[in-house]
Amino acid sequence: MEEVQGEKQSSRLVLVLYPFQGHINPMLQLATILHAKGYSITIIHPEFNSPNPSNHPHFTFISIPDQLVESGVSLAPGDFIDRVLALNKNCTAPFQKCLERMLDDDQKHPLERIAGVVYDCFMYFVQAVADDLGLPGFNMRPTAAAILLFSVVPHTEQESIFESQISELQPLELKQMLTSFSMNPSDNMKEMRAASLNAIRSSSGIIANTMEFLEHAALSMIRQYSPAPVFTLGPFHKLAPSCSTSILQEDAHCISWLDKQAPKSVIYVSFGSMASLSKQEIVEIAWGLANSKQPFLWVIRPGLVHGSEGTELIPDGFRQKVGDHRGFIVKWAPQREVLAHDAVGGFWTHCGWNSTLESLSEGVPMLCKPCFGDQFLNMKYICYAWKIGIQVESELERGKIQGAIKTLMADIQGEEIRNKAMELKRKTILSLTEGGSSLSSLEEFTKQMLSI
Ligand code: UDX
Predict the structure, then answer these.
(1) CA 404 – CA 110 distance, rounded (Å)
(2) Is the ipTM of this complex over 0.95?
(3) Residue among 238, 354, 366 whose CB has most ligand 1 atoms within 8 A, to mutate
(4) Residue 5: pLDDT above 60?
């Protein structure tokens, strides 16, 4: 930080959360990274799903009214567009007031000025407020950078560009995704896309939770089209290892259970914070795991099956088949610690982007069952571009599950996948060492902040 007349001047960054677990985690991790670089941090968040300030004693937390519950917006994963629109509409005025108040305080304490605002890409209203108040805004992407191609490549060019795309991007089948996106988009979807593109265009930069080697082709294409620089500081969780971000209580007992398992023997099963499954799918997963003979750690989050605790749906006979020691079920796990544990040899995932990065950075190969949204693109990256996972058929059936677990964990067929996963772990470590792409990108970001 700069010296002003012998006194230390520090800069404050304001970070704005989108209040769902898969977005809260990367934003708080990014806050931790930036705090370690010397910035003071203020987190502004909607009241809904407030993070726990006591986990981050060095940050200032400010809650703003969001009227989410009062607006009667559905919290189902499929209704996220309505939720995003409601938050952007309801939070604009309280956020503007809050930021104006902070800027007034700046006048009184000139040694700590607001240097910029970093916002989750779903909270795009923040960019317009930052522009209005003359502050630089940075768009934080908690998803794969490739998702940005649907925004930054002009609509008129998307079809032909995606058709003739370079070979590294072919496994993503972007043209096919474009066709499904373009089919009858609702007015709400059009509104959200236009507003979020405007935010990207006027931002001072994009901060992506990804790595250069992982999305090289997508990042080059994005940089051709985006006027804003793209900073790739991922995986955030590896640069902020001690950051605690869970809204649900983590059950640490599973770590002592993992301690007793053989190296690389356990399949970890979790479908993130929002995905839902049917009762029948739980039954098929249960029998697939039981019959696989493989030790497993299974997260059954309350609400994973709509309106249920989930565990009561486990079929009769399952526990006898599994015995007392082969399986462990929790409501919520310390996932990053689980994936870094020696005993874990595979991860059956819904392919959320955080889970994807957490798994690949530990060299853990994946079984993939995407459920909604960006998870389908992530699955294509994992299974067909990076080749560190196996796609599970969308209709879950116990015999096929059992077969897929065996292939991933033990068969000769799975060996290439397991080796490839270890190779990506090594490349991740390189990105995070001195001179590696993620650390260099962090330096570039801080340089740009100084120049602003
Ligand atoms: C969603 C989208 O699926 C994801 O692709 C997007 O980028 C963010 O929003 P979610 O479905 O929750 O997120 O999945 P994911 O991105 O994997 O995030 C889940 C987070 O919860 C991970 O950081 C994971 O470590 C954590 N988690 C999950 C736990 O801490 N414990 C658990 O038991 C399960």
Answers:
(1) 60
(2) yes
(3) 354
(4) no
Amino acid residing at 411: D
- The 10s digit of each residue's pLDDT in 392-451 is 998 999 999 999 999 999 999 899 999 999 999 999 999 999 999 999 999 999 999 988
What is the rounded distance in angstroms from the CA atom of residue 430 to the CA atom of residue 399? Answer: 39
For residue 7, pLDDT over 60 is answered with: no
Q: What are the Cα distances from residue 80, in Å, to 176, 199, 209, 273, 443?
A: 22, 19, 21, 14, 34
* pTM score of the predicted model: 0.96
Query: 258 with 308, same domain?
Result: yes
Give the atom of ligand 1 at the shortest distance from the alpha carbon of 339.
Answer: 25
What is the rounded average pLDDT for all residues in the chain?
94
The answer to whether 124 touches 88, Cβ cutoff 8 Å, is yes
Q: Does the pLDDT at position 3 exceed 90?
A: no
Range of the domain at 404: 253-410
Nearest-atom index, ligand 1, CA of 250:
31
Are 228 and 81 contained in the same domain?
Answer: yes
**Burial code of 403-439, b = ≥16 C-beta within 10 A, e = fewer?**
bbbbbbbbeeebeebbebbeebbebbeebbeeebbbe
Is 425 among the domain residues? no
CATH number reported for the structural domain that contains residue 324 in this entry? 3.40.50.2000
Q: How many domains does the chain have?
A: 2
pLDDT at 8 exceeding the cut of 60: no
**What count of other Cβ atoms lies within 10 Å of the Cβ of residue 81?**
17
Cα 350 to averaged position of ligand 1 atoms, centre (Å): 9
Separation of CA 5 and ligand 1 centre (Å)? 46
**Residue 125 identity (one-letter amino acid):** F
Indicate whether 416 belongs to any domain: no
Distances (CA, A) of 331 to 55, 155, 224, 286: 21, 43, 44, 15
Cα-trace Rg, the chain: 22
42-46, 152-156, 420-424, range with the lowest pLDDT: 152-156
Asked if residue 284 and residue 375 are part of one domain, the reply reads yes
The set of protein residues with a Cβ atom below 6 angstroms from ligand 1 is: 21-23, 25, 142-143, 246, 270, 272-275, 299, 332-333, 335-336, 352-355, 358, 374-375
60 - beta bridge partners? 42
Last residue of a domain, one of 378, 395, 410: 410
> What DSSP line would sit under 121-134, residue for residue?
TT-THHHHHHHHTT
CA distance 216 to 46: 34
